[in-house]
Design brief:
- This protein is α+β, with helices and mostly antiparallel strands.
- Helices cover 27% and strands 37% of the residues.
- Strand 10 and strand 11 form a beta hairpin.
- Helix 2 crosses helix 3.
- The longest helix has 33 residues.
Amino acid sequence: MNSIIQKKGQVTLFIVIGLILLLMIGIYFYISSIKPSEEKITPDLEPIKIFVDTCLEQTAVPAVLLQASQSGYLYLPENNGKPNYAETDSGNIPYGFVGDKKQLLSKESMEKQLNTYLAQEILKCINSFKSIPGKKIEVEEESAVVTSSIDRNIIRITFNYPITLDVKGDGTQLEKLEEFSTDIPLRLGHVVEIIHKILDSQEEDSQYLDLELLNSFDVKVDVIPLNDEDMLFQITDKKDWDKGTEGISGLEESVYDSEKGVYELEEDYLVFLTAAKYAVNYPPKMTLQEGYLLKDEQEFVLEIPYHSDDNIVFEDDTPLFDIEYDGSNKGKAVIKFTPSVEGEFPVRITITDTIGQSVEQEVMFKVVG
């Protein structure tokens, strides 16, 4: 009896072990099936891969730097057919802020522009592989697609470009390549987060620049007035970096050294520029002469044209008359009274808007008999 029970227990144990092994084998094959396989780079394909990789790397870095220098744009924007950017000594800088509203590109829109721009520039660099003579290479130009991801500390770029190499030239040995990628260790995503915070603060109060906020970041923030309405925000991220690290820098021109694994930099900074156009509130204006001649006991009527960006208040320092006006930002105020005393009466008239800007003028009222 015990022998039978023992044999049953052994059979059960073997079944459990078998099931576990079967499950493990199933998991292994499942993971293998979903894990992307790496393309095998043969000696024949290697020079082609190096060439495409070099084109990708040498076009990607300048593109990202150009995008940063143009407020996230690679294609300058328009508004109703007119340029929507400030013309500066640093180039044409799109507006990231207008009036009291932020209008920065979203990260997704920046990536979309980068994808389109790079797809064009990389193909120009490849130039149908004319610099690689003696090889029969077929490509699917229409299938060339760039996908980018602007992360906080790095930009990841993938270039899908189906290539077929006819090794012997007779169609008997075909080798294929399709996916190329590079990581650009520039903190564009981080810098974009910072400019969003700065312009969020401007949305709350466009008349106030929070210097404490500007000095709280780990980058250099400069604010450069351009004219009465336009201002330039410049963010400089200056840190040493090489390929594959989290250190950062930017440059005007760069060359990637594949042996050293670094970009040879002309400069060591990344600069993000965006322009802001503010609704300027000008002081009010009124039209008055220096003096007026009045007749004693005759009604005198004077209209005072005025204009302001805000509602206004008129004031005077005389008991001779009151100024009638409706308080709107544009119109005519009226002085209406009948003088009863001859003489010269200097009067100071002041117009003030709702934010405290004022203009005053002294006017001489001369009353004769």
